[in-house]
Amino acid sequence: MFATMASADTAGGAGDARPQNPDSEDSQDERPALHTRNRPLLTIGVMAATIMHILDTTIANVAVPHMQASLGATADTITWVLTSYIIASAVAIPLTGWLSDYFGSRRLFLWAVFGFVVASMLCGMATSLNEMVAFRLMQGVAGAFIAPLSQTLMMDINPKSRQANAMAMWGMGVMIGPILGPVVGGWLTEYYNWRWCFYVNVPIGIACFAILWALLPSHDKRVRRFDLFGFTMLATALGAFQLMLDRGQTLDWFESWEVRIEGIVMLIAAWMFVIQMATSKEPLFDRRIFSNRNLMTGLFFMAVNGVLMTAVLALLPPMLQTLYNYPVLTTGLMLMPRGIGIFVSMGIASRLIVRGTDPRMLMGAGLLIAAWSLHQMSGWTLDMGSTPFIVTGLVQGLGFGLIFVPLNMLAFATLPTPLRTEGASLTNLFRNLGGSAGISMVTVLLARNVQINHMELGENITSDSINAVDPGMASALGSIGDTVTAMLDAAVNEQALMISYLNDFKLMMFLTLAALPLLFLLKLPPKQGANRAEPHVAFE
After folding, report:
1. Exposure pattern of 332-349 as b/e (b: 16+ CB <10 Å)?
2. Mutual orientation of helices 420-459 and 293-322 as an angle, nearest 10°?
3. Which of 11, 10, 31 is nearest to 20 (CA)?
4. C-alpha distances out from residue 211 to 14, 48, 531, Å
5. Secondary-structure percent of the chain, ordered helix, strand, coil, rounded to 5
6. pLDDT digits over 458-493, tens only?
7. Which CATH number is 317's domain given?
8. What pTM did the predictor assign?
9. At the N or C end, where does the chain have fewer CB atoms within 10 A?
10. Average pLDDT of the chain?
11. 339 and 231: one domain?
């Protein structure tokens, strides 16, 4: 338990951590780490801030072509609108734990929301690409702190018996946000203006800030030396990694010296960070975190979850629009059943955990369901209707929801309360890195497989396989032959692209199944206090 803070950090009448007292262990087990006067209203404010931040990771994607014209950018340079946000967020996330200890979690959360709202307003007002990139950097830095702080707070303001429900609620915002982003962004861009993709954050952010100012509690400050060298090395490694992923496809990966240099810098900086973590007296992260088996296993699962969730959402929109000719808004609506499935299964998972179901069994079931849905996706055809997209999306959402809630509970199950913020920053970082790596992986494989499949399919187009015309004689038919050749090439391209998408889905299925054995590394914490008589798992 944390003692009450007597500082400006707890202004606005927010309750703080309740002091310890000689009450029984049973009652202490059901007392939250932090106390607030109105937990439901504070939960609304925290979740609104989380969804606002998560939406911005994808809401601007569909508006990029419109931004390009308004900002006078080229097709290559406009991608920095997205890249700058990703890099800034990745670099800033590891700072969350130290800043929360130094300034207090309340003050950091308030500044994060305030900075995000101001940066969003400036993004909407930007008149040049340089301004937009600078403001997106600000937005990424401010938003980086929101996810780990909100996750920690949702655990800290709820007693152990309610933490599964709290993680389910927080997970719904994190998982559904990327799905809603393209839908909301497409609607705002089509019926209003691309600038409203950023302006929409302003009223929501102001309401969130008011709620947090009135009710947000804070942990005690814990002054410790800032590991500047360790942070510099980690930030360099993360920045180089994100740049390598973003620029690799454009520059043909390691055929380019730029990508090679970024890869070398990443490896050197990462190695120096590991050495600093092992030898420094006061490293950037508390070393106790890395001896926690559940959290370390959870980090890998978070990366896999990021790959699956983000890669699927990166593949489906262009696939639906290019191969099936669905418009943007229809494409977004067809992704919605995935969010419904996540919403339903997270609620089910939280209830089952409270009733004593082993979280590892739920995760295993979720992985198998997700793998089965990816197997179904690998059998799609070009002549099918919308039903398979909707059904498979719903089933896949059910699987993702069964993975996410138990994973968050087990990752923090044996982690001491003071280390939760640092643990949350690492889990969010690994989820983001997994998402970035997943997008790059499937994009690269898609592009290369299209070329291979086109070549293999083209070899089979002969007079024996096509009765109507001899492809070898098409050049002798003049303009008619050119038309026939173009039609054949378009058909081959379409089939090659479809096969490449199916190969990506199959690869993600194998990745999902490969994660199953790691479930045996996760362990349940011992039940304690009043929870001995309850049928649910104690998560601390």
Report:
1. bebbbbbbbbbbebbbbb
2. 40
3. 31
4. 10, 10, 32
5. 75, 0, 25
6. 666 655 555 555 555 555 555 555 565 666 667 777
7. 1.20.1250.20
8. 0.73
9. N
10. 78
11. no
